[in-house]
Write a structure and sequence with these properties.
By secondary structure, this protein is α+β, with helices and mostly antiparallel strands. The chain has 11 helices and 16 strands. The chain has a 7-stranded mixed sheet with strand order 1-6-12-5-2-4-3, with helices on both faces. The longest helix has 19 residues, at 237-255. Bound molecules: adenosine-5'-triphosphate and 1-O-pyrophosphono-5-O-phosphono-alpha-D-ribofuranose. 1-O-pyrophosphono-5-O-phosphono-alpha-D-ribofuranose (PRP) binds at residues 57, 186-187, 189, 202-210. Keywords: Amino-acid biosynthesis, ATP-binding, Cytoplasm, Glycosyltransferase, Histidine biosynthesis, Nucleotide-binding, Transferase.
Length: 330
Amino acid sequence: MHRIALSTARAPVAAAAAAAYYGSRPREAACDPQLVPHPERHDRRGELLFGVPKKGRLHEKIVGMLKGAGLEYKREARLDIAHCRDLPVSLVFLPAADIATYVGEGDVDMGITGEDIIAESEVDVIELMRLGMGKCRLSVQAPAGSTQDPRQLAGKRVVTSFPVLTKKYFAGLETGAETKVKCISGSVEASCGLGLADGIVDLVETGTTMRAAGLEEVSVIMHTETVLIANPHSHHKELIELLRKRISGFITASRYMMVTYNVPRHLLHVARQITPGKKSPSIQPLEDEAWVAVSALVEKSKAATIMDSLEAAGATDILLSAIHSSRMGD
Ligand SMILES: Nc1ncnc2c1ncn2[C@@H]1O[C@H](COP(=O)(O)OP(=O)(O)OP(=O)(O)O)[C@@H](O)[C@H]1O
Ligand SMILES: O=P(O)(O)OC[C@H]1O[C@H](OP(=O)(O)OP(=O)(O)O)[C@H](O)[C@@H]1O
């Protein structure tokens, strides 16, 4: 567990949650002064609020992951909140860039977002787990051939969607004038070509966007990945831990597959070396005493090679199956 920066108050996400809640009730109920949404409403219902990116590159993967972790919910069209069926959890669909702020300073108990956004938002959240997706880096970029030294951009015009991190980075390089950092919301890579910037700070994964815009990487500010975060002031510590374990179980399961095969007993020592399993393989005797059945976890990325090796070692009836979830420990 890793703690990031500092925090304070609670913000009214619960109002949105409550609005959605009353939206599904008769109109009179929504107008009843006794039932006017207020920040405590959600606490009273006792539900954990879980912030999920509402669109963009992280959305589909995260929704798939939450379903794989057993969070069953139905999201009504146009509603940004969905109540889970079997757990006192509501998913709140928010812009990825705002989730860290809601978790650090609002009523949202947990969330999923990038480490870049957490750093930019300067909030106090608990990083529970890396999710192995959204891996990229935040880099200083400049028109190809113009400079290889970020100090040459200090004091000049730099455009970005990460003004806090950009200002901090260039503040450490400035010897004279302050860098003129301008914030725009997207397509930052266009800003040098359109005469707005001398350099930019933007995310790079494959480098395709950067190169297509005629830019090159000058320096890396930070590496980032998508993470599961929690509000340090949440009252739902046990539920947070339950969800963390479920998500961790799903992620581990998605990295492994189960291989089962039969092998002559006298060749078992060879097969065991090929499939040592996570702790050890499970071995069952067969009717024919000369044979045993083996099952073992294998990494998905190595499964095909392992099957080739097992066959070459004399194993037969080799089957590979997917694992949908797990509790294996971290
Ligand atoms: N090219 C990329 N490769 C990997 N991860 C990325 C990439 N671009 C962005 N991310 C991660 O996804 C997060 C959200 O990205 P971003 O704010 O660009 O949203 P988006 O998915 O493009 O949707 P939107 O349409 O709202 O801009 C980033 O903060 C970063 O952590
Ligand atoms: O190195 P690459 O693989 O090309 O990825 C990097 C691009 O991905 C992100 O943009 P996105 O596609 O989210 O669009 P945006 O510029 O509108 O945010 C990021 O802002 C870069 O522009």
